[in-house]
Amino acid sequence: MLRDKRIRFIVGHYGSGKTEFSVNYAIKLAKLGKKVALADLDVVNLYFRSREKTELLGKLGIKVIGSGIEAPAVDVPSISPDIVTPMQDTSYEAIIDVGGDPAGARTLGRYKEYIVDGDYDMFFVLNANRPETQTVEKAMEYLRRIEDTARAKVTGIVNNTHMLKSTTTIDVLRGQELALELSRKVNIPVRYISTIDRVAKELPDNLEGKIFPMTLYMRDEWMV
Q1: CA distances from residue 206 to 60, 92, 193, 209 in whole angstroms, order as listed
Q2: Which CATH number do you get for residue 38?
Q3: Which domain range does residue 139 map to?
Q4: Measured between alpha carbons, how far is 174 from 127 in angstroms, rounded to an integer?
Q5: Coil, strand, or helix at residue 97?
Q6: Residue 42: which of 14, 7, 69, 8 has the closest Cα?
Q7: What are phi and psi of 136, to 5 degrees?
Q8: Is the pLDDT of residue 48 over 50?
Q9: Is 167 exposed, middle or buried (0-12, 13-18, 19+ CB in 10 A)?
């Protein structure tokens, strides 16, 4: 994590688990004593957004940047102008949770002036259980479409193949095969293998990519 670029954009298909990964990433950095900002750039999905965990993240000292309209009963596609703060202020470790799908990634294109090649990482979160990304051809097409609309290049793949709380090592290892095949096709490394803590402990330690244990912060206890 500490070798990643200061600005990390997290992209992926809706349902890939990119928001869960973003929140876990921010929390891990905060626990390492870093000054962290988590910006929610998702104007597509009205559910499971990182900004919903503002209170939890705030207690850990994480600055959360979400909607530009602060009203409890209003939820509209609005982005706070503060989104540029962690991009400009180099004292922050920044995680930008970008809207799912190419349409959501288009929002990132607005900030092209702050995106300098070599100064950021963009992680493509891959869930092999999603119909739209369950083959290397589909995943590659999706990745390229996101790059085109975001006007930025993916620098790393995150294997986040899951079945929520029912995830098994078989799920993750099957997803790893797809992630590696995609990696070879697009010449982008697998950077992380993210999964729930229980499964992370059971994975072999010789996988390509860093094992990234996660807590399901975005799902309440009653959710499966």
Answers
A1: 32, 32, 12, 9
A2: 3.40.50.300
A3: 7-69+76-214
A4: 10
A5: strand
A6: 14
A7: -65, -35
A8: no
A9: buried
**Residue 30 falls within a domain, yes or no?**
yes
CA gap 43, 30 in Å, rounded? 25
How many structural domains comprise the chain?
1
Residue 33: pLDDT over 60: yes
Taking the model in full, what pTM does it have? 0.89
The pLDDT-based confidence of 73 (bands split at 50, 70, 90) is: very low
- Which of 46, 44, 43, 48 lies closest to 18 in space, CA to CA? 48
Rounded alpha-carbon distances, angstroms, from residue 17 to 21, 74, 89, 176: 6, 25, 27, 15
Give pLDDT tens digits for 85-140. 999 999 999 999 987 777 778 888 888 888 888 899 999 999 999 988 999 999 99
Asked if the structure places residue 224 within a domain, the reply is no
The pLDDT assigned to 74 comes to 41
200-213 average pLDDT score: 97
CA-to-CA distance for 215 and 20, rounded, in angstroms? Answer: 8
- What is the CA angle 178-182-186, rounded to 5? 175
Residue 222 lies in a domain: no
Is residue 142 included in any domain, yes or no?
yes
